[in-house]
């Protein structure tokens, strides 16, 4: 019996690496992505703000974001934008992006501590940016990137790359308080 068990274990050790090298099938239509919104109050040794997605590469089509604010004290939100090489308009005075100067695809807004929210987006192939636009949260690291691939594309690796974890570029803009472009309070 021991000889047979040993042979099975040896075969499993030889076959397993090849099984893991096979491309993963792309997630089916109707994909749900869990988005965890975390900050130091979340606990578990978290020292900064971050947005964690359970899939960084998905297939084009209907994609539901299921956001969970794991903070014990701060509100967070998830805004969705197409990711481009353009620097994002950032108002240093408010510590926020100027959303009215951007092309938002939608958002899950103002989740209080412990709250959850869902929103479905129909996304075509391309790169997307998810971010929290509460004051100073983006600059503190609360963003994630999402790559959407065409149907039928095999997803080789669903782990974020250095490019996907790089802070989005911003450009300073000055907005007069109370102006039409002032996002404070909106």
Would you mind describing this structure in some detail?
This protein has 186 residues and is mainly beta. The chain is built from 2 helices and 12 strands, in the order αβββββββββββαβ. It has helices spanning 2-21, 162-165; strands at 31-38, 50-53, 57-59, 61-69, 76-82, 88-91, 96-97, 104-111, 116-123, 126-131, 143-149, 170-172. β6 and β7 (96-97) form a beta hairpin. It starts with a helix and ends in a 14-residue tail after the last strand. The model is unreliable at 8-29 (pLDDT under 50).
Task: Give the class-level CATH name.
Answer: Mainly Beta
User: Roughly what percent helix?
Assistant: 10-25%
SS content category: mainly beta
Discrete helix count: 2
β-strand percent reads 35-45%
Summed over residues and divided by their number, the pLDDT gives a mean of 83
Short descriptors:
mainly beta; 186 residues; 5-stranded mixed beta sheet; Immunoglobulin-like; single chain; 2 helices
Secondary structure layout:
Layout: H1 2-21, E1 31-38, E2 50-53, E3 57-59, E4 61-69, E5 76-82, E6 88-91, E7 96-97, E8 104-111, E9 116-123, E10 126-131, E11 143-149, H2 162-165, E12 170-172
Parallel strand pairs: 1-4, 3-11, 6-12
Antiparallel strand pairs: 1-2, 4-9, 5-8, 5-10, 6-7, 10-11
What's a concise summary of this model?
The chain has 186 residues and is mainly β. The protein has helices spanning 2-21, 162-165; strands at residues 31-38, 50-53, 57-59, 61-69, 76-82, 88-91, 96-97, 104-111, 116-123, 126-131, 143-149, 170-172.
